[in-house]
Amino acid sequence: MISLILKALIMEKKSFLLILSALIPCFMKADWPQFRGPDGQGHSKEKNVPLEWSDEKNVKWKMAVPGKGFSSPVIFNKQIWMTSAENEGKSLHAICLDKTSGKLIHNIKVITTDNPGPLHRLNGYASPTPAIDKEHVFVHFGPRGTACLNKKGEVIWKNTNLDYNVIQGGASSPILHNDVLFLTCDGIDFQFLVALEKQTGKVIWKQDRGHLEAAAQKRAIAKMSYSTPLIQSVGGTNQLVCSGADHVASYNINDGKEIWWMPYNGFSIVGRPSYGNSLFYVVGSIRQDHFCIYAIQPGKGQLKNKQIKWKYSKGVPHVSSPILVDTEIYFVHDGGVASCLNAITGELIWNERLGGNYDASPIEIQNRLYFLNREGKTTVLSAGKKFDKLATNQLKGTFKASPAVADEALFLRSDTHLFRIEKKL
After folding, report:
1. Average model confidence (pLDDT) across the chain
2. Where are the alpha helices (DSSP H) in 1-81?
3. Comparing 18 with 93, which gets the higher pLDDT?
4. Average pLDDT of span 373-383
5. Which residue from 105, 125, 225, 274 could staple onto 324, CB 3.0 to 4.6 Å apart?
6. Edge-to-edge, what's the strand order for the sheet holding 389-394?
7. What gap in Å lies between CA 105 and CA 95, rounded to an integer?
8. Is it the case that residue 383 has pLDDT exceeding 90?
9. Is 17 among the domain residues?
């Protein structure tokens, strides 16, 4: 009898440990760990996020952010991290705020340079969004360098050895997968992707871009791009998919070898890919400054025409990324016209003017779409085949960073402040 009781207790303890081990990763996941959130595609499962707000309504706190930057917030546990620049880009900083109070925790000068490089009039010196995990935050400033900091604000490593020239300033954000940090470096001189050891910043592999022969015959600027990659498992292989000048390509994350690619015509691609319905949805172009969404069935080598399921090129944005929700894909043109397409066929379902100018990428929370324009107006729509405007919300400031979501709250960064938008009890 005693032996049976002991066995039962042992089995009960094992069951408890199994349940605990399953729960621990859930608690250790970041709230908003990278550009466009947990899945890299702008989706959140948070509940009770406000539908309405203003400068006087549902703002839990508003905190000034030192310096100037357009990077989006990333969030882990009680910390919010962003980047900023001071002294006209010669001093590059990592900024940390307390998620609960908004209080400034860290303002770390990470990189200094005598040559901040050229800049587009609408860009800044601190535009790439950081990546974060339970121990570290990874900040990236384009050719000026990349760094890893711990949560105490101590710099663990820097890598300033990646040589390329982006004449409009850095924009592509770093992405973290397990123990590897991936960067896209599409300059006017050199174009490559690189994988760095998370712990040391040392190069694991570096893969030059291909398929730029036609671009090389034009002008140097025709080889540059600014897109952030997406990692997606296809057939058991994790693929790194990234738009570049004149093509989109998929790479094996283990060695950087190209898996498939598809040509188009144009450069300065910014939008991040999405994945769903067994298709990649990528932003390319049909000619320069005329951008296009392609729905692609992945494969091997150069994709065949039959693997390009559809393409759509009317009102596709240059800067913000589309958002896929089930079998619809939504986007808003830089000039403020939003569109909804059938993601299976590419058929236009609706398009409506929201107004304003757009840099921030839209997000989806519990079947609601949030479109934040540069002038501080957020239009909230119901996701679906019918254009259904639920709310319009206005804040003061200039907004280029994409929203972040955590703890039933929205985090919106303007040119001067970070706002925590939350229902007041």
Report:
1. 93
2. 2-28
3. 93
4. 98
5. 274
6. 43-44, 363-365, 368-372, 377-382, 389-394
7. 8
8. yes
9. no
Whole-prediction pTM value? 0.92
Which residues have CB under 8 Å from 126's CB, separation 6+? 67, 68, 69, 70, 71, 82, 83, 84, 85, 92, 93, 141
Q: Is residue 1 part of a domain?
A: no
Range 139-155 average pLDDT:
98
Which domain does 225 fall in, by range?
31-422
Domain count within the chain: 1
Is the pLDDT reported for residue 174 higher than 80? Answer: yes
CA distance 37 to 1: 54
Closest listed residue to residue 138, CA positions, set 104, 179, 88, 191: 179
The tokens 């706002």 sit on which residue? 419
User: Is the CB of residue 229 less than 8 Å from the CB of residue 174?
Assistant: no
Question: What does residue 4 show for φ and ψ, rounded to 5 degrees?
Answer: -65, -40
Among 149, 25, 180, residue whose Cα is nearest residue 79:
149
Contact 271, 227 (CB under 8 A): yes
What whole-number distance in Å separates Cα of residue 94 and Cα of residue 84? Answer: 6
Q: Are strands 247-252 and 337-342 parallel, antiparallel or unpaired?
A: unpaired
Note whether residue 317 is domain-resident.
yes
Domain CATH for 415: 2.130.10.10
* Residue 263 placed within a domain: yes
Tracing tokens 């990649």 back to the chain, one arrives at 280
With a CB cutoff of 8 Å and minimum separation 6, the contacts of 67 are: 84, 85, 86, 91, 93, 95, 126
For residue 19, the one-letter residue type is I
Q: Which amino acid is at 376?
A: G
Residues 208 and 314: their CA atoms lie apart, in Å, by: 32
230 alpha carbon, distance to own chain's centre:
9
